[in-house]
């Protein structure tokens, strides 16, 4: 989605983070979730200052990774390169075990199990120097300022996240979708 790419390119902190993550050469590595979603919601709310990122979610997909704690090494490297951010790195090829799902096939499949559809967005810098933005559910509801539950997840988790993350206070134009779409 070109609009998101344009907005990211205008954001010095996000561009620095993308370049730092790219330097790790993670297989299918992306910055995801609030890193992208919050930027869109901030822009659509015409916020002059970006909403602070609680954490920066880095996802990758390596089904051949044998070290279950490899993500800690990646987090340490990112913390050394850019300590101002709270890095959270996860190999999505392993997350199905924690979530009680069948093995995920790739990044898009893994994100398709996240609690809100609008959170299932990610961006990366390709080896060609191009920003690539992907989403498991498309971008329409994200730009429509919706928070939509994922029918693959318990609706209780969806409501807990909305409350605990205080999204409706940060972005009052958001609307919560009541049913699965």
- How much helicity do the residues have? 25-40%
Through-space gap between termini: 21 Å
Q: Structural class of the secondary structure composition?
A: alpha/beta
Oligomer: single chain
Low-confidence spans: none
In N-to-C order, the SSE pattern is HHEHEHEHHEEHEHHE
Question: Beta fraction of the residues?
Answer: 5-15%
The number of E-state strands comes to 7
Number of helices: 9
Mean pLDDT: 95
Largest sheet: spatial strand order: 3-2-1-4-5
Largest sheet: 5 strands, mixed
Instruction: Specify the overall morphology.
Output: globular
Question: How many domain units?
Answer: 1
Report the radius of gyration as a whole number of Å: 16 Å
Pfam families: NTP_transf_6
Organism: Grimontia indica
InterPro entries: NTP_transf_6
Protein name: Nitrate reductase
